[in-house]
Recover the amino acids of this structure.
């Protein structure tokens, strides 16, 4: 599962980068491009860091950052759709993946917190 999530979160980052660089080269498009690239790549980086955490507390902290960053990525994708920079159909699979990753990461954090308190 851990390896699958490393692959999935990295693939999510790659897909978001490709989407981001396809945005119009306007002031808003460039702003969202940078924000989406930053947040999406941070998801993968923080999940990897969580996996090599030296303690449950460290794992939970890094996983919490990954959750925040995947949610932020979702926000930027929704925002670019709201601003009519891309059609929703081009973004739906990324929105679904961000929702799934969020759910998985939250469930993992809950489990880790329960195990830590035992």
């Amino acid at each position: 599962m851990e390896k699958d999530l490393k692959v999935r979160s990295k693939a999510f980052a790659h897909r978001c980068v490709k989407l981001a660089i396809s945005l119009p080269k306007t002031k808003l498009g460039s702003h969202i491009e940078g924000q989406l690239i930053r947040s999406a790549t941070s998801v993968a980086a923080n999940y990897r860091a969580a996996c090599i955490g030296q303690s449950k507390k460290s794992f939970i902290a890094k996983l919490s950052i990954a959750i925040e960053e995947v949610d932020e990525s979702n926000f930027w994708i929704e925002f670019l759709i709201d601003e009519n920079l891309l059609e929703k159909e081009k973004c739906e699979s990324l929105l679904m993946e961000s929702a799934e990753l969020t759910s998985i990461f939250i469930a993992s954090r809950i489990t880790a917190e329960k195990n830590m308190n035992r």
In short: The chain has four helices and no strands. The longest helix spans residues 88-116. The mean pLDDT is 95. The helical segments are 2-21, 27-51, 56-82, 88-116.
